[in-house]
Design goal:
The complex is a heterodimer of chains A (291) and B (320). Chain A is mainly alpha-helical and 291 residues long. Chain A has one domain: MetI-like (MetI-like fold), CATH 1.10.3720. Chain A has 13 helices and 2 strands; from the N terminus they run H-E-E-H-H-H-H-H-H-H-H-H-H-H-H. Chain A has a two-stranded antiparallel sheet. In chain A, helix 2 crosses helix 13 and helix 3 runs parallel beside helix 8. Chain A is flat, with a radius of gyration of 25 Å. Chain A starts with a helix and ends with a helix. Chain B is 73% helix and 0% strand. Chain B is globular. In chain B, helix 5 packs across helix 8, helix 5 crosses helix 11 and helix 9 crosses helix 10. Classes of the chains: A mainly alpha (291), B mainly alpha (320). At the A-B interface, helix 1, helix 4, helix 5, helix 6 and helix 7 of A face helix 1, helix 5, helix 6, helix 7 and helix 8 of B.
Chain lengths: 291, 320
């Protein structure tokens, strides 16, 4: 390599770094540094005013001896499992429909993305209204029309049942994401594969099982892991709909920003939450995606 | 004949499924619109069509013809008195306007807009430079940085909330109005930055390098080619990324609720709406109208960029 070429390469390198530097500084100081700082804080009794005092692992001990924490872990587990399965299956079903030709398909495809892009705060009220004991359509149908219950009640209001609504709401809000990803994969499947299967006398179900499913296997695998990460960290879609469903994020929020505002324990909680997530991902990548 | 009949049946069944999916997706929006237009006596009516259209909620939120609405009759009589000067009358009306406006929708709307617009604009500029570096320049460490940006997807807001809040407190930013606004601005910026970087990087790769080469031969510097070639060629992508970032910031609740807690004047729409709901003024028509008005800008923006956004999302530029 000539000296000139080397000089050009070094210049290129400097130029690349110069352009990316602002982004790096911002991401490092507002995402990576805070993550580290959070671990640091989790060993302290964090005071809102005045200096923090080092208390070792007391925060962690307090957390794992608290039953409410284990309840939050369990709630999160249920929430993540059902929302992930739900969004993926609904997304797959909708994608299989949307890949076919029908009138106004462009418009329909756009309309069904609305749940995903609408602000959480604006749609939670409609969902709360559905389950409103006096005015809601849910009580109207189940109690007045079909007499499934012997009295009106507030489904979102009770801690045991609210999680059902939270899960349905999450599926409604996020299925368009899975649908979009799967649809774009479906559209790239070579039509000749289906033709070949038809010539071999494959039924509709067989075509789905032997052609479509293997083709979407990996996109579905990636969707599941993304949805697990996101649903695990979900806060707004749960908290704004109802504060009865205490998943870990909501539990941490209440600990750190209400009442005594124990931010040290809050920090420890988010460290634990992160470790749980990492643990799951390592397991999933090894076992399910077999990397 | 039998085959054709079966086909028609199949087709109708299929269209019914499509209809079902569409209904499932937009029913909550229809409910929102419907309730926002209903009078209280009509709320329990399961039909989506109001028996009588009620526009009061919208009028109140948008401050249309509100001047005399909240003024008691006795004061109105007083206002008819010709002896009062115009300025005096206005002063009296103003007093009632302020106390009567229970939900300062327009103010929250403005706060949300300023915050989201500024954050996504700055984020876009930084992302253009960074994405160019990702997609066009060769250097050691590029792959690591790209993966580092992707890693950010792992961290939900709640994991960053406490440390960022503590940092703002320690730096003295959380104690002042300006500082709080600034903190929130850069937080929104960093929240949208990874997505913008990723989406733009993917787009820049589709622009043929030969166009740039021609410009370089003509004596443009590298930086000039970004400004003169890359930016004009990717305007639709820039608009898409900007709007997507804007939507993320517009929808954000968690950070705003913690940082703006003490500053009612800086409330963004999401916290404003939440506080409206828990307040005693929680009336369904008004809440639904406010929800409609909060969702509308996002829906309009989405429809504008729908096609480009879909391809951006499916190539991996998504954030939740």
């Amino acid at each position: 390599m000539t000296i000139q070429a080397k000089g050009l390469k070094a210049e290129e390198e400097r130029f690349g770094w110069k352009l990316i530097l602002p982004a790096i500084i911002i991401i490092a100081s507002l995402i990576f540094y805070p993550i580290g700082y959070n671990v640091f804080l989790s060993f302290f009794d964090v005071k809102l005013r005045g200096p923090n005092t080092y208390i070792g692992i007391t925060n962690y001990r307090d957390i794992i001896t608290d039953l409410a924490f284990w309840h939050a872990v369990w709630t999160t587990f249920l929430y993540v499992i059902f929302t992930t399965i739900g969004t993926t299956l609904v997304g797959l079903g909708v994608a299989l429909v949307m890949v076919k030709e029908f009138p106004l398909r462009g418009l329909v495809r756009a309309i069904i993305l609305l749940p995903y892009i609408a602000p959480v705060i604006s749609v939670v009220f409609a969902w709360q209204f559905f389950f409103d004991p006096v005015n809601g359509i849910f009580m109207h149908l189940t109690y007045e029309k079909f007499h499934l219950f012997d009295q009106r009640f507030n489904l979102i209001g009770s801690p045991q049942n609210a999680i059902i609504v939270a899960i349905i709401f999450n599926i409604w809000k996020n299925f368009p994401f899975s649908y979009l990803m799967i649809l774009s994969r479906l559209q790239s499947i070579d039509a000749t594969q289906y033709e070949a299967a038809e010539i071999d006398g494959a039924s509709g179900w067989q075509k789905f099982w032997y052609v479509t499913l293997p083709e979407v296997y990996f996109v579905v695998g990636s969707i599941v892991i993304l949805r697990v990460i996101w649903n695990f960290n979900k806060f707004e879609e749960v908290y704004l709909l109802t504060d009865n469903v205490k998943v870990l994020s909501v539990y941490t929020y209440f600990k750190a920003f209400t009442g005594t505002m124990d931010q040290g324990q809050g920090a420890a909680l988010s460290v634990i939450q992160f470790l749980l997530l990492i643990g799951f991902i390592l397991f999933y990548v090894k076992r399910v995606l077999k990397w | 004949m039998v085959v054709r009949k079966k086909n028609i049946l199949k087709k109708t069944g299929f269209l019914l499924i499509v209809l079902l999916i569409v209904t499932f997706s937009i029913f909550p929006f229809l409910q929102m619109l419907s309730t926002s237009l209903k009078y209280q006596f009509d709320w329990g009516n399961p039909s989506l069509i109001p028996t009588k259209i009620n526009l009061e909620a919208y009028k109140e939120l948008l401050n249309i013809s509100q001047t005399t609405r909240n003024i008691p009759d006795s004061i109105k009589r007083l206002l008819d008195n010709p002896k009062l000067s115009k300025a005096q009358k206005r002063a009296i009306i103003k007093k009632y306007e302020e106390t009567g406006n229970v939900f300062p929708f327009l103010k929250y709307f403005r706060n949300s807009f300023v915050l989201s617009f500024t954050a996504s604009f700055i984020s876009l500029i930084i992302a253009v430079l960074g994405a160019y570096s990702f997609s066009r320049v060769n250097y050691r460490g590029r792959g690591t940085i790209q993966r580092g940006v992707l890693f950010v997807y792992m961290f939900g807001g709640i994991l960053l909330l406490i440390p960022l809040y503590q940092m703002a407190v320690k730096l003295g930013l959380a104690g002042t109005r300006g500082g709080t606004f600034f903190s929130l601005l850069i937080i929104y910026m960093v929240q949208t930055l990874p997505v913008s970087l990723y989406m733009l990087g993917n787009y820049f790769r589709t622009i043929p390098f030969s166009i740039e080469e021609a410009a370089l031969i003509d004596g443009c510097t590298r930086f000039e080619t970004i400004r003169r070639i890359i930016v004009p060629l990717s305007l639709p992508a820039l608009a898409t990324v900007f709007i997507y970032a804007f939507m993320i910031a517009w929808n954000e609740y968690l950070f705003a609720s913690v940082f703006l807690r003490a500053y009612k004047n800086l409330y963004t729409l999401p916290i404003g709406l939440k506080s409206l709901f828990v307040s005693k003024n929680a009336i369904w028509d008004r809440i639904m109208a406010a929800s409609m008005l909060t969702a509308t800008p996002v829906v309009i923006l989405f429809l504008l960029i729908q096609k480009n956004l879909v391809s951006g999302l499916t190539s991996g530029g998504v954030k939740e």
